[in-house]
Amino acid sequence: MVQQDPAARSDRVLEVVGVSKSFAGVHALRGVDFELRPGEVHALIGENGAGKSTLIKVVTGVYRPDAGRIRFAGEERHFGNPLEAQAAGLSTIYQEVNLVPLMSVARNLYLGREPRRFGLVDVRRMNREAAETLARYGVEVDVTRPLRTLGLGAQQMVALARAVQIEARVVIMDEPTSSLEPREVATLFSVIRELKRQSIAVVYVSHRLDELYEICDRVTVMRDGEIVHIGEMARLERLRLISLMLGREMSSVRDKGSTAFDTARHRQREGVPALRAQGLAVRHRLHDVSLEIHPGEVVGLGGLLGAGRSETAKAVVGALPTEAGTVEVAGRPLRRRSPAAAIRAGVVMLPEDRKVEGIIPNLSVRENISLAALPRLSRAGLVSRTRQDEIVDFFIQRLRIKTSGPDQKVSDLSGGNQQKVMLARWLCLNPEVLLLDEPTRGIDVGAKAEVQALIDELARDGLAVLLISSDLEELIEGANRVVVLKDGRVVGELEGEGVSEQRLLDALATAPSHPEDAEYAEYAAPEHEEQPGPEEQSGPEGHKDRKEHRE
Question: What sign results for the dihedral spanned by CA atoms 33, 38, 43, 48?
């Protein structure tokens, strides 16, 4: 057990003592001690699977601990559910926005505590106050719109505003900046500093080290369900922090930390591109976007949030209908575009939001991995369990997915391991083109390096990869070329030694604005679209057979 500073024990708003929790025989928490002082910002960090999310869920009443005690505001408490914790003054902002997408922005902000007049909800007052509140967070939107029409960044700010508005003594922030632009991050930090002045404590979970050192007072490091370090943030050297998280010697971390992607800058592009998209246009979102990727090449898609990066990938695979443009796979036109047709042609996509568009939480690891491959594993309508197990076991080992077994529910895995499960789902189809939308979002240092190394390995094996990332360093280190988007348009392309952070920023800063883009909403997210019917899901003729997994 980690020795704590005795002086720190005199004033605590939250105290966790000896908490343990297991799932299916796997220890998620082992005798965890954690404390939080009023008015401090406390970093809670560790690799995916270290136990951070489980600890938060135990504290907020999602899980009941197997052992241990929780004291909140001086009293021993075991909350029955998150609403009970919230009512007591413990608010949580989750990485995946946990609001009601079909309700209006104002309704989400005041859900459960709407202002009333004569016993009825005072809609006019609610909308007015919601607009005023969000304006203080730099979010200027029509609060009567459904929440789902906002981008992830704006949704995150709505969740933040809601959590702060509730009279909280503790605010837990789980990867709060993962969907925010730099100016929104600055706003968030201003809010956090104001919370400190009000003696409200903040638990800050993030994998972005710069943020931790800028905003946090103290840090607790977790590894394998245990606390391995508690101390002041400013006194902990970055390299030491990483070594604590990974459980490796600092010399090992230094050697590994110098390598992310190992992609050759000057890869020869010869022959027919694996993917060529030309003139893609989506009303108010994309304007004449073109790009191509050759086998064995990693092409980055750069730009700020709202630039059209995700929309480009979705337009390629047919998840977002286009007004104009063509897509070719290995020289063959993809005529009737739909996700099913794209998959048959060998183009697969890992979506940005793994919770909503990726994993199926109530299914097992086995079922999530093999889902896309089921048609290939069946004969006369019956799935070969032996073949299914072979593929699942292969990818659990290859991607080093931390799980108690293939029958474990995927929702019980850490975020990084859920991401690996989604990667395995598509890799078992042996695709030609892999579109990755924020593949390392919310993933810890160790898992991030593993995913980056895997992407590089796949490229060396001849896979064409489109890499979308908000992390400029990830794009610069990982891509052979970077196509830069702004306001739904291609404003530059960097290649070879020209791939640098400064040139990417220059491309964004010097790109002209277009008057016709005035309606392109900064926080706009794709509206819900009707998916193509079965008659539209035929793939190109003569598509070659592929192996069921890459040897």
Answer: positive
The number of beta carbons lying within 10 Å of the beta carbon of residue 499 is 21
Residue 485 burial (C-beta neighbours within 10 Å; 0-12, 13-18, 19+): buried
Q: 433: phi > 0 → left, psi -120 to 50 → alpha, else beta; which?
A: beta
Instruction: List, in order, residues 6 or more apart from 276 with CB less than 8 Å away.
Output: 291, 292, 327, 328
Specify the length of the chain in residues. Answer: 551
pLDDT in tens, 17-62: 999 999 877 788 999 999 999 999 999 998 767 889 899 999 999 9
Q: What are phi and psi of 349, to 5 degrees?
A: -135, 130
Give 137-169 as a 3 state SS string: CCCCCCCCCEHHHECHHHHHHHHHHHHHHCCCC
Written as one string, the DSSP assignment of 276-311 is EEEEEEETTTEEEEEEEE-TT-EEEEE--TTSSHHH
Q: Which two tokens stand for residue 410?
A: 């995927």
DSSP code string of 429-494: T--SEEEEESTTTT--HHHHHHHHHHHHHHHHTT-EEEEE-S-HHHHHHH-SEEEEEETTEEEEEE
Burial class, 549, CB count within 10 angstroms (exposed 0-12 / middle 13-18 / buried 19+): middle
| DSSP conformation letters of 56-78 | HHHHTTSS--SEEEEEETTEE--
Q: Where are the alpha helices (DSSP H) in 79-225?
A: 82-88, 105-109, 123-135, 152-165, 182-197, 209-215
The confidence score (pLDDT) of residue 305 equals 62
Other residues' Cβ atoms within 10 Å of the Cβ of residue 236: 18
Judge contact between 277 and 290, C-beta under 8 A: yes
| Residue pLDDT, tens place only, 262-316 | 445 445 567 899 999 999 998 778 999 999 999 999 999 988 766 888 899 999 9
374 φ, ψ to 5°? -55, -40
User: For 146, phi and psi rounded to 5 degrees?
Assistant: -60, 145
User: What residues contact residue 179 under an 8 Å CB cut-off, 6+ apart?
Assistant: 151, 152, 153, 155, 156, 305
- CA-nearest of 292, 300, 290, 288 to 275 is 292
Tell how far CA 133 is from the center of its chain: 26
pTM tops 0.70 = no
* Mean pLDDT across 472-482: 85
The pLDDT tens digits of the residues spanning 229-251 come to 999 999 998 878 877 886 755 44
What is the edge-to-edge ordering of all strands in the sheet holding 286-293? 286-293, 275-282, 324-329, 332-333
Q: Are 97 and 151 in contact (CB under 8 A)?
A: no
Q: Considering only CA atoms, give the Rg of the chain.
A: 24
Are the C-beta atoms of residues 433 and 348 closer than 8 Å to each other? yes
Instruction: Write the CB contacts of 431 (distance below 8 Å, at least 6 apart in sequence).
Output: 343, 346, 347, 348, 463, 546
Kindly state the helix (H) or strand (E) to which residue 243 belongs, with its residue range. helix 238-246
- Helix 445-460 crosses helix 238-246 at what angle (to 10 degrees)? 80
Averaged pLDDT for residues 353-375: 81
Cα separation, 48 vs 60, in Å, equals 19
